[in-house]
Amino acid sequence: xxxxxxxxxxxxxxxxxxxxxxxxxxxxxxxxxxxxxxxxxxxxxxxxxxxxxxxxxxxxxxxxxxxxxxxxxxxxxxxxxxxxxxxxxxxxxxxxxxxxxxxxxxxxxxxxxxxxxxxxxxxxxxxxxxxxxxxxxxxxxxxxxxxxxxxxxxxxxxxxxxxxxxxxxxxxxxxxxxxxxxxxxxxxxxxxxxxxxxxxxxxxxxxxxxxx
Length: 212
What we know:
Layout: H1 11-47, E1 54-55, E2 67-76, E3 82-86, E4 90-94, E5 99-107, E6 113-122, E7 130-134, E8 141-143, E9 148-157, E10 172-181, H2 197-203, E11 207-209
């Protein structure tokens, strides 16, 4: 004889409903997490949030008399045997002035290694006005033993920055790059015969990249 009171849902059915609701909630959260990644990326590129810079293919139409100092920072993550440094540490630029600066990269290992650079600018709020025309970031770079390259970044600071009252006291922007190691090159070069390695290294010409 059933002891369930009138109006009460049997336990198995109630448990099934709870499990179904929990499963739906988990699926919805997973879907939102995947959707959040491209949305966050778009949001950062659009607003400059978190120091994300802008990208352009043309020069600005005006140059302001206001001058800002841009400082260049370089870092190499653990596990990547590279020397990485800018040709200069600071430069004074006018708003709207297109500037080209080179970073020098040297593979100090006796083997081919690969890296990829990420970047940001500070203060973070200036990312919406820092615009790059050409850059080596987010492009995998494979360097041969002892190889040295000059990599260019072409940028300008948008003249619209002068219209932002929150940036009235801004006089320094830091552009920071960090190279991270990536997987080993898929097709490593054949090993040279004994006695020929030194001669090959002496005759190698440092490669240039990023010049426009």
